[in-house]
Recover the amino acids of this structure.
């Protein structure tokens, strides 16, 4: 028989005195109740001390709190780590403040309802079980996939905190797509020199191992015990044992080449970047012909991405100032939501860059050896003032469409990560957990999530490094066993749960001693689904879906749910 | 129309529904009588058998309060339960029960008013439908 101690939250404003007294007198007549007390500061350390002493003195094995929302108390009981003589999962809360007092007008009705809720909570209290805590040791070993600017920065930051990093790059050199960039929009530093210094540092860091021309072939295991099999071009395979994985595989670009877009006088932003950095002569030339008027045509692709606006503004200023070219920028919107961009935009206007806002796609046509762009400027508010204009330019600069790296799709299958709607990797929560993936211990950063600017990637790299360090710094990962558990005897190996698990915490392993579906020999272990407790988030989707009812959720059992439903027969 | 207080089982996802229920309390919104709030870690935890057992054992109607689609903390839990709900609907149709007795409502943590309104609407609807004939 359970002995339940009851505490009534007497914090001012929670439950008024007369109601508390009525409840207390009702509770006295109930069975299984060891004591019933009013407590004013339930979630303060002093309150905890008083409570612990009373629990020990009375020898109770369950606690029921009558008060407000369980969410209030659970954080303090289960997460703050106050030493208590009882397992934190043996606490039950009867929420009579939110669910009764505040939602029932009539006192008598409220009292009846409160009695029912307390009765229900007492039944739940006697069905709950203690839940243990486990811990997992974590070695400071991290695998970073992708040797671009994000990967390099993460490796540097982690190595500084004495975490050993294995940097895996598919190509033969580090740096990735940053080789296309020559100038930053917000500093006068030379990009190539800056990246060379970074690569040099990474190469000479004893805490970083670099594998180039290698790719990930297989991944097994969960947080803390990942086994990554990597393969070199000659077919040799190595297995790495790492605690966490960071994916920073970057993006690819696709250029439109149909019709006039394939003409030699239509180039891309990255070709322009290269041209500008390589020309030392003040007279800019393209294919031997001097350039006087350059038109940037943006937003035909990548309409919601700001990288193109940044590059176009940066390049147009260089063209106007250094090479005395006239520049026109045609776009749907100038995206200035990056540090220093508003200033850059104003400067471009002052220097005489023409901006033109369009809605209908501009028409390009050849006139002699120049390209004519016909567009309707919609920047003016009144329709009468929106004039069609034609610009005869020597060079058209277009943007390339950003697409996810083809490797991303393969990796998402291999690592069991989720993809967003455009095929980029999806974070766990776009607002709160921006660099965590759906699997615990795997992080995503940089342009494999969405096309981004260098400064943004650097911020993400720091964020990932911080997350990884906070995960690994203690050397152990401690978790409550509020997880799903498979009964291997009942498992029919139907593969429903491994496919379904949103966090890929379930694998099928041969570990079952016995199975009701197969007759086993004495020394053979049968395959059955297995939930890794460190990777499970405890959502219960697999529990509800299992056709054989082989899975139970330890902290919310069927029994507890039926008790909560409070129905006539059991 | 029979005058009675229909028993409603409100399954509340811990991420949104339960917080919305608390919010309804904080806003001092009146809730209909005879509502049992069942707290589940994710709407995906709700099994089809719970829905049917609840109807068998005395509930007049069931409401599932889940997160908005695409907004599930566990990515697809609310979609799974939606699938199970339509399965349960088909079964109810076969045995001749009104499928209005089972419903899903998507809300966010701050939808206290929506929580209370949905319960009131359900309660009115069930009053019109009459007591659940499948009660044992």
């Amino acid at each position: 028989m359970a002995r339940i101690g009851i505490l009534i939250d007497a914090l001012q404003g929670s439950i008024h005195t007369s109601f508390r007294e009525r409840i207390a007198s009702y509770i006295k007549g109930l069975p299984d109740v060891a004591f019933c007390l009013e407590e004013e500061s339930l979630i303060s350390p002093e309150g905890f001390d008083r409570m612990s002493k009373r629990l020990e003195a009375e020898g109770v094995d369950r606690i029921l709190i009558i008060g407000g929302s369980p969410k209030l108390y659970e954080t303090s009981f289960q997460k703050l780590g106050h030493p208590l003589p009882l397992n934190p999962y043996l606490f039950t809360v009867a929420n009579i403040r939110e669910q009764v007092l505040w939602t029932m007008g009539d006192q008598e009705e409220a009292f009846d309802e409160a009695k029912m809720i307390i009765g229900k909570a007492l039944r739940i209290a006697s069905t709950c079980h203690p839940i243990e805590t486990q811990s997992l040791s974590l070695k400071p070993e991290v695998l970073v996939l992708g040797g671009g600017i994000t990967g390099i920065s993460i490796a540097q930051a982690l190595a500084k905190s004495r975490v050993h990093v294995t940097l895996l790059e598919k190509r033969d050199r580090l740096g990735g797509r940053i080789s296309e960039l020559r100038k930053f929009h917000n500093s006068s530093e030379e990009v190539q020199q800056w990246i060379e210094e970074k690569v040099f540092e990474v190469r000479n860091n004893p805490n970083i191992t670099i594998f180039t021309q290698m790719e990930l072939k297989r991944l097994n295991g969960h947080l803390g015990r990942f086994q990554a099999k990597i393969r070199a071009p000659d077919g040799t395979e190595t297995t790495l044992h790492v605690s966490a994985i960071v994916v920073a595989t970057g993006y690819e670009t696709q250029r439109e080449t149909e019709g006039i877009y394939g003409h030699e006088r239509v180039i891309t932003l990255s070709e322009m970047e290269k041209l500008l950095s390589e020309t030392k002569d003040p007279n800019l030339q393209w294919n031997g012909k001097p350039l006087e008027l350059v038109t940037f045509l943006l937003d035909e692709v990548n309409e919601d991405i700001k990288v193109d606006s940044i590059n176009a503004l940066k390049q147009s200023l260089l063209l106007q100032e250094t090479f005395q070219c006239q520049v026109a920028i045609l776009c749907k919107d100038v995206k200035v939501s990056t540090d220093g961009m508003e200033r850059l935009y104003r400067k471009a206007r002052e220097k005489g860059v023409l901006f033109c806002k369009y809605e209908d796609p501009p028409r390009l046509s050849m006139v002699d050896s120049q390209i004519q762009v016909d567009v309707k400027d919609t920047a003016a508010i009144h329709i009468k003032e929106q004039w069609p204009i034609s610009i005869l330019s020597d060079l058209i600069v277009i943007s390339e469409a950003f697409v996810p790296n083809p490797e991303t799709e393969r990796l998402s299958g291999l690592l069991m990560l989720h993809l967003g709607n455009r095929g980029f990797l999806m974070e766990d929560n776009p607002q709160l957990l921006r660099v965590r993936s759906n699997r615990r211990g795997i992080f995503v950063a940089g342009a494999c999530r969405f096309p981004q600017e260098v400064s943004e990637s650097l911020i993400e790299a720091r964020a990932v490094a911080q997350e990884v360090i906070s995960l690994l710094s203690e050397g152990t990962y401690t978790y409550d066993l509020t997880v799903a558990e498979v009964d291997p005897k009942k498992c029919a190996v139907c593969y429903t749960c491994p496919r379904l698990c949103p966090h890929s915490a379930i694998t099928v392993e041969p570990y079952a001693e016995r199975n009701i579906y197969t007759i086993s020999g004495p020394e053979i272990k049968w395959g059955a689904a297995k939930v890794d407790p460190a990777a499970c988030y405890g959502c219960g989707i697999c529990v509800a879906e299992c056709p054989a009812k082989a899975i139970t959720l330890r902290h919310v059992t069927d029994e507890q749910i039926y008790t909560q439903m409070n129905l006539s027969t059991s | 129309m029979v005058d009675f207080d229909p028993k409603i089982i409100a399954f509340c996802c811990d991420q949104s529904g339960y917080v919305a229920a608390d919010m309804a309390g904080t806003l001092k919104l009146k809730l209909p009588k005879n509502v049992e709030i069942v707290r589940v870690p994710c709407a995906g935890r709700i099994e089809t058998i719970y829905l049917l057992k609840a109807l068998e054992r005395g509930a007049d109607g069931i409401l599932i309060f889940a997160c908005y689609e695409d907004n599930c903390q566990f990515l697809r839990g609310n979609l799974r339960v939606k699938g199970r709900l339509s399965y349960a609907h088909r079964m109810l149709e076969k045995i001749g029960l009104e499928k209005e007795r089972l419903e899903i409502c998507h809300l966010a943590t701050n939808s206290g008013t929506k929580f209370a309104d949905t319960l009131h609407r359900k309660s009115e609807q069930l009053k019109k439908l009459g007591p659940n004939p499948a009660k044992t």
Notes: The CA atoms of residues 266 and 495 of chain A lie 52 Å apart. Chain A has a mean pLDDT of 88.
